[in-house]
Amino acid sequence: MLLVLVPDLRTQLGCFGSAKAKTPHIDRLADTGLTFLRNYCQQAASGPSRTSLLTGLRPDTTRVYDDRVHFRRALPNAVTLPEHFRSLGYTTTAFGPVFGIPALEDPRSWTVVPWVPGGPAWGSSEGSDLADSNWRRLVANAWIGDTPSSESPSQASPAALGGSPRSWEAASVADADLPDGKIARAAATAVGEFKDQRFLIAVSFARPYFPLVAPSGYFDLYPIGTWGGPESPEPPLDVPAFALHDSRGIRGFDDIPSEGPIPESKAKELIRAYRACVSFTDAQIGVLLDALDRHGLSKSTVVAVVGVSGSHLGEHGLWNKHSNFDAATHTPLVVRAPGEKNAGRKTEALVELVDLFPSFCSLCQVPRPAGLEGSSWRGLFDDPQRLWKRAVYSQHPRTIPGVGPGMGHSMRTDRHRYTQWSGIDSPYSTLELYDYKEAPVESRNIANRPEYASLVNGLSHMLREGWQGSLPPTELPNASRA
Q1: What is the DSSP string of 370-421?
Q2: Which residues of 308-335 are buried (b: 16+ CB within 10 A; e: fewer)?
Q3: Are 373 and 460 found together in one domain?
Q4: Domain that holds residue 257
Q5: Over 70: is that where the pLDDT of 136 sits?
Q6: Residue 201: is its pLDDT beyond 60?
Q7: Dihedrals φ, ψ of 155, to 5°?
Q8: Residue range 239-248: average pLDDT?
């Protein structure tokens, strides 16, 4: 199995219908796999989303709502996806920070210690202790790429190598000089090493996470003017102010104002740089797919390209993720599985990242652990149009002025997004409701309009039922599992 995680990845890819996107390698995977057009993360933040994906459990179970808490604090005996496959005889390893920041890494998951740029050679005994402070430093640096390896010296500035004080840079370097290029090539080597055994290789890229750094050639794919400014840059009408955020994830860069709107000229630069980084990451995915082809493994290996979350590019005045809106929670998923039907098809079924764990168990025909909170979508390979989930679920914490800590639990149905904000230690509650048939991007919160009272009551009941009330037919009690 090859699991590829991409942070902050929007669905504006060729295989999702974006004619301007240059993503030939994800598209070629889609041509031989299944594209999930409506996949959603459980929380649009790196640590919580990765934790849900890798444990098959939702944030309210893992108690991971930010990047500071390890899931084993609340669930010391939880079994992760790679740990489960390791217990079944698979060799498991990773390239790049799969669990996110160093504090969230999980030693029990790996047969071979994960590799990060600048670290000891992959598979060596040196630096094999995941608790080692130097290893953790390397994982942290893998996000920004400020540890160029000695075997690939470069005259590029630290900014060009990823640690830019600016929000973006077209770097005068080769793909292999940047961390994601090193990660792809190291993982491709591992494919050859493991070709005669069962394996799970997890690969975590850093881009298109900020700063948006890619070789200059990828910027050339998007001439200035190819993309305009943000779509729907104004906040939704009647939205609770705390449902938005101050885009603090990009405020620390020298070329970004510390507060207030991002100037339109800068917004256009950021959108172009984001597209360039997506194409750069797509090329690294091509390196991995080529390795499978070269070793004759393409027809026998499950491959998944997964967006850890989406990302705002100025919608509602927001940048980065950290919201319950569709731009942040809607994320790509493309999967190829050996011998599956309907290659090259797309499905509109609502699925979630928490579904990956049970689905991979089904695809690999191995037992799944008890207690997983996702559903196997294996059956969608047989019939991409079959009846599936009624809704999928996301959430995000907020500090609510005058109330204190709060949580927004959000539900996406075929047509609507319904979000209920509640105080953690108070009876406070307020609602959001958006109709995507009337407006593809959230433009007005209609939750408090009297004509929608009946709809609000019905959606409120569904939200209270939770994910258990929206299971697909194959996952209902007493149903045979696909």
Answers
A1: TT--S---THHHH-TTS---SEEEEEEEEEETTTEEEEEEEEEESSEEEEEE
A2: bbbbbbbbbbbbbbbbbbbbbbbbbbbb
A3: no
A4: 2-381
A5: no
A6: yes
A7: -90, 5
A8: 96
Nearest to 175 by CA among 120, 218, 143: 218
pLDDT value of position 362: 97
Domain boundary at 381, 412, 436, which? 381
Residue 335 φ then ψ, to 5°: -135, 135
Q: Is residue 21 part of a domain?
A: yes
Average pLDDT, the chain: 91
46 or 161, higher pLDDT: 46
Specify the number of domains making up the chain.
Answer: 2
* Strand boundaries in 43-106, DSSP class E: 91-95
Q: Half-sphere exposure of 27 toward its Cβ, with a 13 Å CA cutoff?
A: 16
DSSP state of 61: H
What band does 105 get if pLDDT is binned at 50, 70 and 90? confident
Domain match, 238 and 269 both: yes
Measured in degrees and rounded to the nearest 5, phi and psi for residue 421 equal: -95, 130
- Whether residue 482 is contained in a domain is answered as no
For residues 75 and 214, state if they share a domain: yes
pLDDT tens digits, 308-340: 999 999 999 999 999 999 999 999 999 999 999
Q: Are 361 and 9 in contact (CB under 8 A)?
A: no
Is 471 in the same domain as 324?
no
Provide the pLDDT confidence category of residue 479 given band limits of 50, 70 and 90: low
Q: Are 353 and 75 in contact (CB under 8 A)?
A: no
Same domain? 340 vs 412: no
Residue 253 shares a structural domain with residue 280: yes
Q: Are 238 and 222 in contact (CB under 8 A)?
A: no
Q: How far is CA 161 from CA 74, 410, 475, in A?
A: 37, 38, 46
Task: Measure CA 425 to chain center.
Answer: 30
Residues 6+ apart with CB under 8 A from 407: 395, 396, 397, 398, 421, 422, 424
